[in-house]
Amino acid sequence: MCEVLLDVQHLTHYFKINSKIKIRAVDDLSFQIRRGEIFGLVGESGCGKSTAAYCLMNIYRPFSGKILYRGIDICDPKAYRRNKKMLQTSRQMIFQDSASSLNGRMKVAEIIAEPMEIHHIRPPRGSLRREAEFQLHYVGMEASYLDRYPSQLSGGMRQRVAIARALTMEPALLIADEPVASLDVSIQAQILNLFKHLQSEHGFSILFIAHDLSVVKYLCDRVGVMYRGRLVETAPSGELFENPLHPYTKALLSAIPCPDPRRERHRVWQEYDPALFEWPGEMVEISPDHLVRKGEEKIEN
Amino acid sequence: MKIKIFNREICVCALLATNSICAKSSAEMGKTVRGRIWLYYGRKIFNFLVSMLFLSVAVFFVARLAPGDPLRSYYGDRVEKMSPEERERAEERLGLKEPVLTQYIRWLEHALQGDFGISYKYKRNVSEVIGARLGNTLMLGGISLALILILAPGLGIWCAWHEDKWQDRLVCRAGTVLSCIPEFWLSLVLVFIFAVSLRWLPGSGACSPGREDDISDRIQHLILPLAVAVTNHLWYYAYMIRNRILEEARAEYVLLARSKGLSKRTVFFRHCLRNVLPVYLGLMAISVPHILGGTYIVEMVFSYPGIGTLAYESVQYQDYNMLMLLSMFSGILVMTCSAISRTINAWIDPGMKNTENVLDGR
Amino acid sequence: MESLLEIRDLSVSFDTSQGELKALRNVNLSLYPGEVLALVGESGCGKSVLCKTIMKLLPENARIKNGRILAAGKDITDYREKEMERLRGRLFSMVFQNPMTVLNPAVSVGEQIGEAVRVRYPKMKREEVLKRVLELMDLTGIPEAEKRCKMYPCHFSGGMRQRSVMAIALACDPGILLADEPTTALDVTVQAQILDLLLMIQKKLKTATLLVSHDLSVVARVADRIAVMYAGKIIETGTSEDIFYDPRHPYTRGLLRSLPFFAEKGEELYTIPGMPPSLTRLPRGDAFACRNEYALAIDYEKEPPMFRISDTHYAATWLLDPRAPSMENISLAWPDMLSGNRPEGGGENSV
């Protein structure tokens, strides 16, 4: 359980807008994901969550820092090339907008079987189609959907197809970039259950990116909170919800709407003041596994 | 014509290549604002010169590789009666005996001093020949360009406003059919109807012999070529504008604008058109070479004495010097137009203005 | 109380290649002055169509099959485009879901707000319009209004854009504000701010608001009354308290229970089984029957009418029929998550 699968060390990535302006998308990001763990990464849009995920998937090349996956530095081109097949098959990603991340001109069966075709893997269940059918069944859809196009499916269905596609490679790490953000509440619950269920059955690790803390609370073992490209707090999810230390985490927590009108009407939301959140200090371990970026001010514990 | 298209591709390749070279060399410079502006224009000009160099090399060598006999354009049919010695002497006189590289360097040397050599066919200075015909082409090209520039948005807007009503459908069908008719065929039909059968309009040339200064005569000669050039390109651009406007009209901000209480007409003209027209200007700038290239063919069919006919002849008769100057000419035109279009696009995109605000925008 | 907006038996259909798509089926709704009515349902249940029908912004393949729309006492069902233009912006205006796409990217924000001001006061002078624009930006909480009104939408963050859209919507002091998922595209923290802004404006200007959302927890803070929609029909209406503390329709219960807020760690989230039906091929009887764990035989035969539970609370399910099995049994399946959380003495504030 405690074996580290992914170790991100001081990851930094800039976007160059023009010669004058650089945007610091990810700044000195360090965290670890253990084997069989669901790690949540939370923050507002534009805080660099997706950029970090793209770096982990070798889509962006980070500006500096190290990403060790099973001890292999994936940012090093040589090491990457040597382990290319393993890296490409054992890390899979699911995107937020399934309408645009699935090719609209491919049938569901083709979409699901494509990774196997690319990597020349012999389908364990005979043909590619049988394999696609199995995976589709696995995520709770009937075989009749195999010959449909993504545009004929609803948002929740498409997200299931995206998950099935990722599962064909039997990944060790699944990166899910806001997979439920664009779904309805009732469908969101189905997809979250599916994630939980799959994880307990396969035992892979998930990096789950979200902006909604209530989702993360339900699903994740540990949570990292990001603000403007930096990690400000990481903690086991129970601990984070009971004892948030960083003001940004507190603001995020207080913003979760609660389905109770009487309590909601009387509640005063915590002031959302960006000036409070910029803590320049280092990450300090407060209690086991609970790290927080420490500022000049003292943290009342 | 093929060679012209080829030229354009070379231009693009050259631009790409030089950009990457320049990016490295100038990274350290440009600390001050003034310095940066100088650097910007310096880079642009450097890009331009390098592209021209690439273009001239490519055209020069490709033209030499093409089969044919340049002596034929100089001496005409006399070539066939020449003895081998005479031939050799003639080639030496025209500088065709040396290795191609030496020929090129000599051409470049002369060209840099403003001397582009003589035309084999006309036996006069190339620039002189072109200068004499430039006016004709500018007249035909300029007027057809202006007509398209004015008519295309008008037609496009009209169609978009009447979207899917009979007016729009009629124009769409007719336009598609018209733009599918090949230029030369349309020209021949028009000549047959108006010049041969009805005898209303002259069918070829730029003016009747002996009436060079008569403007009404010149206009009469222009009508048929203009009609062909405009009908061929008009629908292409009008359709593009129509679709862009309709795309804008489907955008969500139209809903918001209408929910404000603005009328459909106001939304259409103040919001949709406003977003489309600047883009159209940029597009038109880049399409100038396209439209002018089209007039080249029209010129040939109507044997209109312009640059198009010259370009065709120069390829046909291996008139190297003429071909070089015309290629340079088109190269400059293409690059200037694309520079203008890029400037327009940068200028109209609000996202490009004060980019600093992006950072504190939240 | 006289209602500001009344919808009576409204049905709207779209003509599609797959046949008639019944987007709204016999919708009845009234909106009273100064209240916030929340319309909740899954995507595709017809919430947005209802808003666009009221504004008459539907695409051309849509038609009102029957029913009436009464706004401020006048029947506007058959109003033509010209007459609607006079009402839009003044009587009702709309806030849209995605602030990224509803602002014209090539027009500065100040100008877009100014345009809305001019709709009402066409002869207003330039300076006065600008003054009003700055006032509106101030009202909707856009800081440094003078600097920002010259900026373009691409320089604004999502929250700021939504505030600008609100400013546009409020430019002519509308009596009715239709907010179509105003917070769905925004972050949680920004969502809280926009909801507060909505509440503040509603208190200040006394605008009647129709708030559309797919998330029940979002509307808890602002809504006075809630209407739950499913497959083009309103299946339950009531005050916030009615809906949150005493939901009667199995669909409303399902929506509430599936919120991850209630889930304990390690336990499965509740989900409503199945999918919403396709609106082109609606099943016979109750559209929710096939997803309903407690469906009765009659659910597959006949559509349930609206049953009255109290003066404010109505629900359309056969379970409320006196002949149906007693509700007591069924209520057991509804865990006491909410009743346990209920704060003491909150009842006095109920509407």
Structural notes for this entry:
The complex is a heterotrimer of chains A (301), B (362) and C (351). By secondary structure, chain A is of the alpha/beta class. Chain A contains 13 helices and twelve strands. In chain A, β7, α8 and β8 form a beta-alpha-beta unit. In chain C, the strands form two sheets. An eight-stranded mixed beta sheet of chain C has the order 6-7-8-3-9-10-12-11, with helices on both faces. In chain C, β1 (5-16) and β2 form a beta hairpin. In chain C, α3 runs parallel beside α6 (158-170) and α6 (158-170) runs parallel beside α7 (188-205).
Summarize the structure.
The complex is a heterotrimer of chains A (301), B (362) and C (351). With 301 residues, chain A is of the alpha/beta class. Chain A has helices at 49-56, 77-82, 84-90, 98-101, 108-118, 128-138, 155-167, 185-202, 213-219, 237-242, 247-254, 261-266, 274-277, and strands spanning 4-16, 22-34, 38-42, 64-69, 72-73, 91-94, 173-177, 205-210, 222-227, 230-236, 283-287, 290-293.
Could you list some keywords that capture this structure?
heterotrimer, B: 362 residues, mainly alpha, MetI-like fold, 0% strand, flat, disordered N terminus, C: alpha/beta, eight-stranded mixed beta sheet
Radius of gyration of chain C: 21 Å
Terminal Cα separation of chain C, in Å? 14 Å
Order of strands, widest sheet of chain C: 6-7-8-3-9-10-12-11
What is the molecular shape of chain C? globular
Strand residue content of chain C: 15-25%
Structural class of chain A: alpha/beta
- Quaternary structure of the protein: heterotrimer
Count of DSSP helices of chain A?
Answer: 13
Q: What name goes with the CATH superfamily of chain A?
A: P-loop containing nucleotide triphosphate hydrolases
H/E topology pattern of chain C? EEEHEEHEHHHHEHEHEEHHEEHH
Q: Which protein chains are joined by the largest interface, and how many residues does each one contribute?
A: A-C, 43 and 49 residues
